[in-house]
Amino acid sequence: MEALFISTGVVALAEIGDKTQLLAFILAARYKRPWPIILAIFIATLVNHGLAGAIGAWVPALLDPEVLRWVLGISFLAMAIWILIPDKIDDAEATRTRFGVFGTTLVTFFLAEMGDKTQIATVALAAQYQEFGFVVVLGTTLGMMLANAPAVLFGERIARRLPIQLVHRIAAGIFAVLGVLALLGGTQSLGF
Question: What per-residue confidence (pLDDT) applies to 96?
Answer without folding.
Answer: 52
